[in-house]
Design a protein that fits this description.
434 Repressor (Amino-terminal Domain)
């Protein structure tokens, strides 16, 4: 486990870009509540994604779809 942590510390993966999520949601006329219901997640998770405070790649992929 220490080797894995060391490798990540030495070679961090860049955070995925999420600056397109909120403008896209607003352009489609979707509320954050609707996105939360469709994705089956918490509103804090969506808020954190839209503010680039989360690195949940699976949720980002599902959000874009």
């Amino acid at each position: 486990m220490a080797r894995e942590v060391y490798r990540v510390l030495r070679n961090p993966r860049p955070a995925p870009a999420t600056n397109d999520l909120r403008p896209r949601r607003l352009a489609l006329g979707l509320t954050q509540v609707r996105v939360v219901r469709e994705l089956g997640t918490w509103s804090t998770s969506i808020s954190r994604l839209e503010r680039a405070q989360s690195r949940d790649r699976d949720l980002i992929r599902r959000y874009r779809e």
